[in-house]
Write the structure tokens for this entry.
Amino acid sequence: MTASIFTFSGDQVALIVRGKTSHSHAPGVMEQHADCILSNGAPVGFFGVGNDGSSGGASSGIGASSRRSANSSNSSGLGMTGIVYDYSRLSRARANYVDAGIARGTGTISTVLFVQVSAAEARAFDKAWADMMADPGSFHILGWNCSTHASIAFQNAGILAGGIPGLDTPDNLYRQLCFEKAGKVSVISGYVGFSPFGSGYMLTVDTP
Amino acid sequence: MSNQTLEIKWEWPAGRQIETKLLADIKKISKASKGLFGIGASPSMANALPDATDVVASVVSGPENLVGKDLSMRIPGVEADKLKVGEHAAIGLVENNTIGICVSAAPTADTHALKDWLNRWNCE
């Protein structure tokens, strides 16, 4: 087992594809999830909660012009309420995403794609997530999901010029970033953990 | 005494201390349904858990108002693997007994020894 440690100083952000075991692995659509790492190393991600479509209305803020409302009652991953989890929330609800030991124990392998960014891009990326945290809106498993919201953050920061090619999946966003940001990305896969460090967080990746 | 089933949500401790300890008799352990097209098990669902497993148990010791009640918890498979149907387990609760943050299999079936063990048990 080898542990790699990464610190963040405002010049890189990252996409984490949960369930993606290596750069070349293509996880199943229902076996992957996208989180991001802010420029201070803080993990953050968008999730869907509930299935009654009763509380996830359209709202203002980031992406407001295209934000869709949760207006249907169903149990098929549509019309759910969106919620943004930060380190604290992930520690309680998804500890296997922020604790490398629990990740190993549960077999939760992730692939982290680091993207070099300018200071302005980093600030805009962080702000995009802060805005989504304050006003997460709705969640739809198809087309308005974790990867859609990660994509919005990359677009609002000017890191990506457009949306995800094809289906909005974490792996498609990963491949888009690899293509469009070639030369500015690096990758590591393994069991991922975070710990407070300075004014942000330190990332640990244990290789299987 | 009510037979109403307590629905307990699972979360990891994240530094929290147990507020309530229960000793429970494990009645059923089964893999959780993944729902339509597996959407319920998608890791993008806030309530999804790794290898989600449903556990039904009967409270045999703990706060008086809970003793005799059944409880159901959906927990990660790695936690469920510690438990066996027909045996006892300790369950630690927080947030007004709505959230379970740890489970442990009891090391003995002896009634007196179980009581002592539960008193000493601290989510380990």
Q: What stands out?
A: Residues 6-120 of chain B form a domain with the OB fold (Dihydrolipoamide Acetyltransferase, E2P) fold (CATH 2.40.50).
